[in-house]
Amino acid sequence: MKKETKRKIFSLLLPPIGAFFIRLLYLTCKKEFIIEGELPQKPFIVAFWHGELLMMPFLYKKIRQNHPIAVMISEHFDGELIAKTIRHFGLESIRGSTKKGGARVMISAMKKMKAGYDIAITPDGPRGPRHSVAPGIVALAQKMQAPIVVFHYSANRFWQLGSWDRFMIPKPFSKLTFYVRQPLTVDDMSEGEAKAYIKKQMLQYSNEL
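and the corresponding structure tokens:
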């Protein structure tokens, strides 16, 4: 079977199957939600590490319900699978990277925010290094004068993949603790200062595993 044919089959079958099992896994787990302060009234940027992507749709829907959001996702094939999977949770996507072809992606994100969307970004995606902060999140926050809200979750029992992001998969019937941090603003910071500040805030609840 040709590689392109295999990809088409995977792209068709894996997202709905994956979404089903992610929902099933979530339902087996105990949940705790820790929310600091009030969410901004205007559209904001959601930031979380790439390795914590799996359960983030549930946290967003818990606190924002039917509010529109677009997630920045790479144009790689694995990005296509992620984009099609999160669609089953009611999340839209913006395809591309702020590292490559950043202007086009940035313009798309700005248009979405002007239309009332929140924007979700994994600052260390799509290829790492793990727990690094790319400049795209800083540029978007400053151009739109948008607050950044850090999302994080932990599990008391989980598997961790050997991928660059050490992707976390909670084990069935584990306890999930979700965190929503106080909104951050980086309007008056240099790029370097903002990146360091965002990283420090994002690592507060993260385990360097």
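(Above: one complete record from the training split.) DSSP finds six helices and nine strands in the chain.
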